Structure formats: structure tokens, C-alpha cells
Amino acid sequence: MITDKLNQIIAECFKVETGNITRETTAEQVPGWDSISHIRLILQVEKAFNVRFRNQEIGKMKNVGDLVDLISEKTGG
Amino acid sequence: MLPSFDILIFFAATAVGAAAFRWQTGRRRAVVLAVSSLVGVWAIFFATSPIWVFPTYVSCALVAIAAISLWAHEETWRYWIAFLLPIVLLVTYKAILATGMSLPAFVGISYITFRLSYLAWEINGDPDLRASRWDYFAHAFFLPSFLVGPISPFRAYCESKSDPVPLQEGTALLLRAILGVAKISVFAPVAAQFGSNGYSDLYHPTSAGLAMLGNLFYLYFDFSGLCDIAIAAGGIAGIRIKENFGRPFLQTNIRDFWNHWHISLTHFMRDTVYMPLLMTLMRRAPWLGFHISAAIVSFVMFFLIGIWHGSTINFVLLGLLYGFGVAWATSGPDLLKWLDPFESWGGVAAKNTVKWAVNLMFMAGCVTLMMLEPAQVAKIQNAFGQLFSR
Known about the structure:
The structure holds two protein chains of two kinds.
Chain A: H1 2-14, H2 35-49, H3 55-60, H4 64-75
Chain B: H1 5-23, H2 26-46, H3 53-71, H4 78-98, H5 109-125, H6 133-140, H7 154-162, H8 170-194, H9 208-237, H10 254-258, H11 263-284, H12 289-309, H13 313-331, H14 347-370, H15 374-389
Helix pairs in contact in B: 1-2, 1-9, 2-6, 3-4, 3-5, 3-6, 4-5, 8-9, 9-14, 11-12, 12-13, 13-14
């Protein structure tokens, strides 16, 4: 559920297919995913899942899987 | 001709540290690495300073490391003590220097304080990174990267403990060190000859461009050469050190340039200033919108980078120019967009070429601003003074 919703957000943000996004997907693999667009993504994720990330948590994520795990931790899902 | 004593000390201390890192484990590894780095740093940079200087320097670092050990992992206000204490030390030192008071040279103070602050930031984000104070000390005072960085993350040091750089890479690392020496001793001086302090006249329209480019390439060869040596020496010791340059001159805008130039500083400022500030603005003042928020944060971040280099007007201007360049690259309009429909006629290639050239000269101008001598800075100040007094 979290994964599907997050993949949808990522796909909309970066104009990619959801099928191309896996837990191992990193920012380098997605065109246009740099530190600035990362901030925009995080803000959208916070709004969509009603969570709030700490700055160090944002910088620590290495791939989509890390983001899924963090959302899961914060939502108890 | 015998190598100088400094170089011998550098290699001896690095060799001892390398041997310890590769073939020792646990606390002894960190202790030997820390002590060998300390001896090397003292011998090369502080042996001729007054006797109180080095102990004072080390004591300041020890206080910061103690704060990091105690509070960096906390999610309370005490984390900020651990994070800010090294920065406060740096700012205090630079502020006293700026008043004209004579202070001993705390060589490498910027890079040590940035490494320690970054260490606090990293531990706060991942308490699993917590290690012994000897490891923190070894990381902060690591001899190869002591003078000019890179500001390599503590994570890289930790990962190297369990997965050191293979010895099989030794030849490549040695070649890299030789390349670094060649950059410093051959390419940089040649570029300097074309720079504003060489044969080119900065104030003559036909040679100003060459002078600025000479300055830019001099800085690149000098700085990246030192980083090559640091990364090679670190790799020989088994420790992965963050890359600091990645083909910056191929970039077509200032933002991409800074993502490939002095990468470790860019990432440090991005993680500790840019992203937190931007997130705060977007959450507290969403009415500003993303582009204005990003522009404000770009100016703040590069203003800090500018005044970190120095406190005179040219460094303030430098920071503002960088900020403008990055803000424009992030949020400004693409003035050459009209060339896009002509892609098959080479329109896009022409656009990228123009952007590349403008970017290169912009950076060359900024670096020249940084390298101006006091008399030239005074000239700029007078010119500004006259401008505003009319």
C-alpha cells in the first residue's frame, strides 16, 4: 500500500513509469532526481502520508526502499 | 636532491597509519592512526609554531569530539551543541583574524571543523555510526586530507574499516598521486603564468578573459592535485576518501558546476544548510513558492561560502554571485529555449555550447574575484564607495 502510493508520487514527480520503480531504485537512476527535486518529492510525500521527516533522515535515504521503510516506521504501517 | 623533511614525515606518518588501519583492529587501529596523524600534522605544520599553539588546537578539537560523543545522537537541543561547537570555534577564529589581530595559523582549521560538524550531523541521522573517540579523532586529523580536505564523511571511514580499499588498487592510487604532483608542480604553475598575477593583464580587454581562465585553471590544478594526493594516500591506507572534483568544466550551469567542483564542500553545505533551510521555508512559508524559497536559500548558502573564504568585499560579492548563478540555474528562465526547435540544425548543441562558455567565464570571473590582491580589492571598494556617494 505504502509502496504503491509512493511509487505513484515518484512517477508523477519525475514523469516515469511506476513499473520502473523498485525498492533498489536510487536517485541517480531516475532522470531529474537531484537534491532540489528530492526536497519537492519529500514535501509531497509528507503531505500524502501525513508524516514529517527530520533533516538528517532526508539526507540518509539511499534508495526508494529506505523511503518506504521510513514512511512505514512513521505511520506504523 | 633529497626530498624535504616535510615530505618524508608525511609519507612516514601515512605509512604508519596505513599499516595500522590495514593490519590492526579495534581500538589499537584507531589509536595508532590518530597518533600517527597527529605526529605528522605537528611535524609538518606546527613544529616551528610557539609551543602552546598545537596543544591549544588539539584541545579545541578534543572538546568538540567530547561534545559529539555525548550529544550528537540526541534528538534534543544538546545535539546542536555538538553540531555547532566546531563551527563556533571556526567563526571565532576567523572573526578574530578579521580584526587584524595576530593569531597563529591554525592550519586546516576549516576542514577539521567541517568534518566534526558533519560527523555530528551524520551520527544524528544514523546513531549506528557511533564509534570511539579515537576513531573520531583519527577521522578529524587524518593526515592526507588535513590541509585541504576533502570533507570526507565519517561513514566512508567506518565502511573502510570493514571493507578497506584493496591493496590491488595500489598501482592506480600511486599513479593518481603522481598525477596530483604533476598537477601541482607542472600544470598549475603554467596556468598561473596566464593568470592575472602572471603575464595576462586583467584590466586589458583582450587579455582579461585569458587572465580569468588562467586563474580558474590554476586553482583547479592546484586544488584537485592536492585532493588527488589525499585520496591516493588515503586509499593506500585503506580509507576511502570522497571525491572532490568530477569534470566540472563540462557543466553548462553554475548549479551543475558546484555539484562537480569541491563536491565535499557542496554536499556538506547542501546537507547542513541548503536542504534544512529550504525544507523550513517550504513548510513555514509555503506562500513564497518553491522557486523563491530555493533562490533565497541559494543566496544564503553561497553567501556563507563566500565569507568563509574571506571577509573583504570581494568575498561577499563572490558569495552573492555564486548564489545568483545557482538561483538562476534552479529557477531562472532558459533564455536560449528558442533554439530548441532547431535541434536537427544543431540548435541544441549550439545552446549547450553557449551555456558552457558562459558558465566557464562566469566561474573564471568568480575565481578571479577570489584571487584579487589587497590593492585590487581596495580599488573595488573605492569604486563602490564612489558609486554610492554620488
